[in-house]
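Handout, section B. The chain below has 317 residues.
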Amino acid sequence: MTTFGYKQSNSDHTLFLKKRHGKITAFIVYVDDMIVTGNDPKEMKALKEYLSKEFEMKDLGSLKYFLGIEESRSSKGIFISQRKYDVDLLHETGMSACQPADTPMEEGLKLCIETSQVPVDRRRYQRLVGRLMYLAHTRPNLAYALSIVSQFMHNPGEKHMNAVMRILRYLKFAPGKGILFSKNTNKPNIEVYTDADWARAVDDRRSTSGYFTFVGGNLVTWRSKKQNVVTRSSAEAEYRGMALRICEAMWLKFLLQDLGYSLKQPIQLYCDNKVACDIAHYPVQHDCTKHVEVDRFFIKEKLDEKIVELPNIRSED
């Protein structure tokens, strides 16, 4: 790709870009599956001809199906989903005729490892959770439930399997759900929403933090994950989450720059914990913040450089 004039992106090493005469061509590869896109038809044609000389390849035309993800276009934008993958999964697991559930997890459910739990087939559990994780590429609403059930892969019990079955029942409720990337003529801006559930894990009292990121009003990244350390307050849990979210936003910023978009306004980071926001703005050294010292200086630096802003937001919102 580099000998053909393409530049490899530092933000995503599977992405190659070529810019000429104010136009751009993007080429992204996953093992032996490739997507070519851009606004330079001549260059796209030349690239495909070049690749066909180097490799045995097949041009499948306009993008409709890629790595199990279905894509459709309209005047409103681009819609992606995994309906076929969803239906096939329900059929293979014998859940095609199950009673649908309207949420992926029971409200208030707290799972843990119990000494008297009824064991289940570990391999089947691991396979089911693994397949559901792939489905989460287009289903942000599965992120939290999957982050919980994936914590018990080594020793699942009956309650854990029931939670996985609940997720499958939820898929039956709405198999065609996906994400719409709406047409947007505005310049891209980055908005990050972050939150943390303090000391929720019963087994080790670690917190679960989550985030979702919008670029130009469209949801592009999200995650729900148990933190690596035990936090001693809700403010600390939120603060550690904020530092990781800024890293995610910075990656998106650099990726947009590779694509030719420079952000005109700071990244908007939304956090509803007032104490965490106060520490970010006024990092006074005291006992409450000594153990998050690196995160303090990292966040303060981005705020001082006007790369990131922390708008006020209420918990109700």
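Note. The domain at 185-309 is CATH 3.30.420.10 (Nucleotidyltransferase; domain 5). Compare this with the example in section A.
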